[in-house]
Amino acid sequence: MVGIVKNILATIKLYSLLMRLLPMNLPGNSSVSRVPIIMEVMGNGKVKCELVRHLSPLTVSNILHSIPITGRLHYLGTKLVYFETGLNMGAEKQRAIFNKGDIGYMTSNGSLCIVLQDLSGIMMNPVGRVLDDLNPLVTLPAGQTLSIKRI
Question: Which of 30, 40, 63, 133 is disulfide-compatible with 26, CB 3.0–4.6 A?
Answer without folding.
Answer: 30
